[in-house]
Amino acid sequence: MGQYPKRDGDWMISGIEKTGFIVLAHREYRFFWLAAIFSNVGMWALVYGRLWLMHSLTDSPLWVGLTTTASLGPLLLLSPFGGVVADRINRLRFLRITRAVFAVLAIVTGVLIATDVLEPWHLLSISLVTGGLLAFDSPSRGAMLPALVPQHHLSSAIALYSMIFGGASILGPAAFAPLVEVWGLEGVFFVIGGLYWMTVATLCFMKTDIHKPRTPSTSIFQGLVDGLKYVRRNQPVFAVILMGIFMGVFGSSFEALLPIFSDSIVSGGIGIYSQLLLLEGVGGLLAMLGVAILGLKIHPGRFYVVAGISFAFSLIALSRIDWLVGALVVIGIIGSCRVVFQTMGITLIQTLTVDEFRGRVLSLDQLTWGSAALGGLIMGGIGQYVSVRFAMGFGGIVLASAIVLLTSVFLKNFMGAQAPREVEDGDS
User: Fold this and answer.
1) Is the pTM of this model over 0.85?
2) CATH number at residue 33
3) 3-state DSSP percent of the chain in helix, strand and coil, to 5
């Protein structure tokens, strides 16, 4: 493999040159990666903290589902515009601002809990604000990666960045129950606020000139239209986004039901809830380690489909389990399948999208997260008026059917998609 030119501020570690960890030799990526650790741990604790908090306030599957809807609903409406903005502004400066606001809102939540004045509408309002910010924050964050490493290290940068997701999905939920036990629910949100402030501090070490936004030649609306046209022409990316939306509505939204599942079906409380989240995270981390080891041997399109179908059938199995050990095993499988599904999806999108449209395409991909808002409402409603078991099983059946159908429609374009080969010295 050819050597890349060493850039100012980069360092090398002997022995990692032939591994995916080579990307840590790039200074800006290193700080971005470290900031992502703080941010993702905070994000996971925030997601599950809100769900358990709403469950504690209302004991209602519908209200818990509405919390998910409020957190992710803005993504459905605002993400496409967030992508246009991400292609027009300095992404790093913007991320510093959004992460600071996240920190403030987490601390405000902790204060409301500590003063015993928190109401369900408070939690929904704060969730709605954070969801709106996320619609602009996520496309900017994802679109920054190609600017931090050379082209031939991009796939490794994505994989290593994705590993943070798996690790944080363990650490965040694992710390949830101990923090509640020692400091109460308010302690969780104060820690989350601190983690977001650490994110901001780390981002301040990065150079703001790593992203030079282009001067727009079109309006925001026209930029959005151009992005939609690009996605529609890019068949593999179009298929990834469609499958991701179905995953959001009928798959990922199952987490809105987990507090009730742990509290009633397996006869547990916050301790069982924390164990379920922990095993989901462990499964995700093991999956990411497997992806890192296999590296370029993985065909992202095929693994994307297999992981999605496996997730769906595991969700159906979870809906039929009423004993703890079985639930822990199955949810570990669910966690591994979901992380592989998400990682392969973002890998396909990053590598098959030109930089000019990357922010807009990634913003449209955020619809896969935003669709969980609709899913939380649907699954929460079914859980409220039918049963939690039925909601989970129904979601798994619909998801499996959708993935099989979409794969058959886009088989030639989607399954044949290949990530770009590594760029060698002398290549143009």
Assistant:
1) no
2) 1.20.1250.20
3) 80, 0, 20
